[in-house]
Design a protein that fits this description.
With about 280 residues, this protein is an alpha/beta fold. The chain has seven helices and eight strands.
């Protein structure tokens, strides 16, 4: 099986809205890893690396994940979103994520992707980004002159790995909250981005992974998001492994946590997301 060759495109060709410069940190991109043609399923995933909205863990929460998705026929698109440390507060990172989903959907035919099987996967603060996209999406603007802006930003499924979810509870990750919202954010805004409170009837099916030993982002983040999904009868699967620090990516060999990729692939298969290419 041939490994796809990645390439990179800017999300906004003429410059990103709200950008304060023209450097790489000011211009969000998608790094494209198309699925190898011989095993392509038509499914696609926008990958959101973590890093506390302060950096991007591009290797073990980005490129490694894209290659893993490619291995069973899923096209991957790594999102390099703008960061709080560079002055980009909410809603700019969320809007970068929305633009990423709209872009993949707009180019679905050209990229051999099913527009109804485009998911989002995120780690840690990237998991907060992903869960925000799954709870704050919109249908697009049918009157927009930009064909990309006409597309829905709703992900069809979510995969959340040790995600930051809450910004209001004792188990919140204060660093992510501070980087995204600043020190003096309005309480209503903070609550609106505490995503366990924002689950709706049309929030997408979700696969969640955490560890009991995670002290950086405690497992309550995943637990309470799962319970919110369950209350709305949204299909969800939650795995909490006993051992493992925060930020493990795909996990180390012989660790129980390293079972999550196979479990996730099985979940995607059971949900009918890995059918043959349309």
């Amino acid at each position: 099986m041939a490994q796809s060759t990645p390439d990179t495109l800017q999300l906004w060709v003429n410059g990103a809205p709200g950008a304060t410069g023209t450097e790489a940190k000011d211009q969000p991109t998608l790094i494209r890893y198309p699925a190898p043609e011989d095993i392509a399923t038509g499914a696609a995933v926008v990958v959101c690396p973590g890093g506390g909205y302060n950096m991007l863990a591009m290797d073990h929460e980005g490129h490694q994940i894209a290659k893993w998705l490619n291995s069973f026929g899923v096209s991957a698109y790594i999102l390099t979103y703008r960061l709080g440390k560079n002055g980009y507060k909410h809603p700019i990172p969320m809007n970068d994520g929305k633009r990423a989903l709209r872009t993949v959907r707009a180019y679905a035919k050209e990229w051999s992707v099913d527009p109804n099987r485009i998911g989002v996967l995120g780690f840690s603060a990237g998991g907060h980004m992903a869960s925000t996209l799954g709870t704050h999406f919109d249908a697009g603007d049918a009157r927009a002159s930009d064909a990309i802006d006409q597309q829905s930003s709703r992900p069809d499924f979510m995969v959340l790995l040790y995600p930051v979810i809450s910004f209001t509870e004792d188990y919140q990750h204060q660093g992510s909250r501070r980087s995204l919202l600043g020190d003096d954010a309005d309480a209503e805004l903070v609550a609106s981005l505490s995503n366990e409170r924002q689950v709706k009837d049309d929030t997408p099916p979700t696969f969640l992974v955490h560890t009991t030993e995670d002290t950086g982002v405690p497992p309550e983040n995943s637990i309470y998001f799962y319970l919110a999904l369950r209350e709305k009868n949204i299909p969800a699967e939650l795995h909490i492994f006993e051992k493992g620090r925060h930020g493990l990516g795909m996990g180390s060999r012989y660790s129980a946590f390293s079972a999550w990729p196979e479990l996730c692939e099985a979940w995607l298969l059971e949900r009918g997301l890995l059918v043959s290419n349309p």
